[in-house]
Amino acid sequence: MTGAATIEVLVVDDHAVLRRGVIAFLEALEGVTIAGEAGDGQEALDRLGQMAVQGELPDVALMDLHMPGMDGISATSEIVRQFPAVKVVILTSFSETERLNAALEAGASGYVLKDAGPAELDTALRAAVRDEVYLDAAVAGKLTRQMRAPASGLGVLTDREKEVLVLVAQGRSNQDIADELYISERTARSHVSHVLTKLRVTSRTQAALVAVKEGLVRPS
Predict the structure, then answer these.
(1) Where are the chain's structural domains?
(2) Confidence of residue 19 (pLDDT cuts 50, 70, 90)
(3) Separation of alpha carbons 191 and 176, rounded Å
(4) Tell me, what DSSP letter sits at residue 1?
(5) Which residues contact 130 (CB under 8 A, 6 or more apart)?
(6) What letter does residue 149 receive in the DSSP assignment?
(7) Would the pTM count as exceeding 0.70?
(8) Residue 170: its pLDDT value, please?
């Protein structure tokens, strides 16, 4: 990217080894510098708060999704709210469209899978700083197919929502679901709400009955 503006990136990933690998990967890209690193969403917010005081906010936060404590979706939402000048690009191994939708709803400017090549990651970062949205081709393809062929029955639920429905049918609370799936309680509550809406039911008990009727869980 000769002649392109330098992009400063905050790398957020709870796995130290993977985080160091991502940093090494980014350092090999021309015009990209590492502004810092964080091990989870809350640490990322704390780091950004410190950077803001010093007037040194990065251009992009490169965000993992699956992290203990504050997950990537919740962190993205908070970064967009508290530090609107910082763009968030998701870097994850999860290709499910429900995660993509959640990330975009939270305000992410990009969604890239961890098997992406250097050119693709560079493109995603530069699209973000131009206030554009970049989506991994494989995930975008899934989303397009889903929009063209809407499902019915349990098929209206994403894989993650089916996981949530199973836990609802087991009588688990929102906090239990959050702990089981390593997501925030807020995200769990949102998933439950989406499940009820998609199944056109008004209570968790009714949703549980649907799960039993459809064979997703055995009657207790």
Answers:
(1) 7-143, 153-213
(2) very high
(3) 13
(4) -
(5) none
(6) S
(7) no
(8) 92
List the beta strands (DSSP E) in 13-100: 32-38, 60-63, 87-92
> What is 7-143's CATH superfamily?
Response regulator (3.40.50.2300)
CB neighbourhood size of 89 (10 A)? 24
User: pLDDT tens, 38-80?
Assistant: 999 999 999 999 999 999 999 999 999 999 889 999 999 999 9
Nearest Cα to Cα of residue 133 among 115, 112, 114: 112
pLDDT tier at 192 (50, 70, 90 boundaries)?
very high
Strand segments (E) across 82-150? 87-92, 110-113, 134-135
Domains 7-143 and 153-213 share a fold: no
User: What is the structure's pLDDT at 3?
Assistant: 45
144's tokens: 């397009």
d(CA 95, CA 150): 18
> Which CATH architecture best describes the domain 153-213?
Orthogonal Bundle (1.10)
Is residue 35 a contact partner of residue 6, using CB atoms and an 8 Å limit? no
